[in-house]
Sequence to fold (709 residues):
Amino acid sequence: MADARKDWSFHGGVHLDDHKAESTGQPVRRLPIPDRLTLPLHQHIGLSAEPVVRVGDLVKKGQLVAQASDYVSASIHAPTSGRVVGIGPQAVPHPSGLYDACIVIESDGKDAWTDLPEPMTDYATLPTADLRERIRWAGIVGLGGAAFPTAVKVNTSGQRPIDTLVINAAECEPYITCDDMLMREQAADVVEGIGILRHLVGARQCLIGIEDNKPEAAEALRQALSTKADTGTEVVVIPTLYPSGGEKQLIRLLTGREVPSHGLPAAVGVLCQNVATAVAVADAVLRGRPLIERVITVTGRGVRQPGNFRVAIGSAADFVIAQSGGYSDAVRQLILGGPMMGFAMQHDQVPVTKATNCLLAAAQDEVPAHPAERPCIRCGECVKVCPAQLLPQQIFWHARAHDFDKAQDYHLFDCIECGCCAYVCPAHIPLVHYYRFAKTEIWAQEREREKSDLARRRHEARVARIERLEQERKARLRQKKEALEQKSGESAADPKKAAIEAAMRRVAAKKAAQPPEPETPGGE
Amino acid sequence: MITAILTIAGLATLFGLILGYSAIRFRVEGDPIADQIDALLPQTQCGQCGFAGCRPYAEAMATGEAEINRCPPGGEATMIALAELLGRDPVALEDEAAAEKPKSVAYIVEDECIGCTLCIQACPVDAIMGAAKQMHTVITDECTGCELCLPPCPVECIHMQPLGATPQTWKWPYPADTVTEAGHG
Fold:
């Protein structure tokens, strides 16, 4: 069975220089906590978190400062004790360079913990809803880079039952080694986290996918597994080929199952979690700790001492780099993430977020050169390497022509933006840039459509209301008029007649009562 | 001869009955083309097209009375979508300048508002909250930026505020614009 599994492969992919040795020489070092921490409210997929503190409030380490505002959202906790000095727009790590809402905390230097919830060491006996609630409370998101709220991902009720838990330890992107070092040093925590996740989703087996350029990490995991006597969990070493760490690619490599287009891994009975996420789950469940720090790789020839560092979330990138030895003279560009999927930063005064796995201070020869784009010669190299089995040149063609419907016909949204196509393109076309352009344009059009639908509904409701009010007004007028007419029929006609009649009766009565008298004086 | 006439007359009667029945049985309420056009319009209800809202403009286009290039908020994208739907040739926008205005929402300077309710009555989508002699305010999420509330305001306390991009609504720029100077279009 195990041998059969290793035969699986995914389409395409590229062999890259892994540049991992630079940052694996030293153990993970914990960096001090900076004076100021900037916590973006939107560090995850879904809606921004809602602040629950005010400017001036004192907070303790681990205290909730912003609450998940929706089902798909994640809470944020104070990474140290101190005072909230600002809630407002700050520079955030985003390719746009735009500002976004953040909570700024000034450290008091005491690093004093708040009261943490009880550890759930007996998790196997607890209802899964309680465990999910704990994960949700801890604000855990996928730490591989996508930052999807984990509590949502592990809620598999109403879906196909999950039989296989896939742990993504491939770390296929060059330069990045934070998962590698985490596995070497905290293999036991990884195994504990896997136990909790397996219990949560009821997975029969667990496969840890790890590239063959990380033998130390694979060995550490095997040892941790052997001491735990964990059955059903297996370390599967896969060949180093970018992007084996893509969710769908890894599932294909380990199980041979193909996740359908637009589908979730649950559709083929698989749940995929990053190895660092498993450790965060273990921290939350077994130690009651929220997600307030993570391991990140600081590397590239642009820094003096590349390595991995445990940093408080919210630490500024310039602080992290200064603390880790500072820039070297060779630095040309700071990239957030790896060289394939990361994006260049305009400056380094942005905070490390839950999704930040790497700060790559690249020298001139480490950043991909951007020679002028030349026309596509339709050589088909991109088709050969596309791990999603798309036709990159066709999507590019239509995205370039702003024909987004056609781009979607060619499954634009199955593109994982791995960058293999652009890497091999002999015409130096920034293909992924075109795909991102097309995707964000399509999303913007969708938002516009939603907004115009809302406006239409509100306008129609208003027109209907005005119509109704007008009808009601007319009906009221008519009623009044009718009432008036009826009244005049009864009281305007009758009282007059009655009055006249009464008057006539009075006259008649008078006449009847007085007849003899006038006759006496008038009768001579 | 008689047989032929009778046959043709019989067929004519039969088909007439079928047609007459289907006209009643499969009758479509309203104008489906106007609905499709209306779905493409941005629903700002701003009246810049010269009609009293998006729906009347859609109905005018459906009957061929109006050109497809009179919707500045929709811009070129809407015009092209309309051209495709109606099988007409794309035409230049009537008011290019208005189409290039950045998306904005109304904003009421609350200190200056006198609570006259005139803007509330003008708003086509009920996006202004307030009551007589009470301060008014705009529900930003529901404002379409039609500017219809600006003229009725007696104290000119309503301004249009351009909607800036946030990291969540930001769009990647067109690559050819940033990589080379080669234009598109």
Chain A has a mean pLDDT of 90. The two ends of chain A are 150 Å apart (CA to CA). The CA atoms of residues 142 and 148 of chain A lie 5 Å apart. DSSP finds 15 helices and 17 strands in chain A.
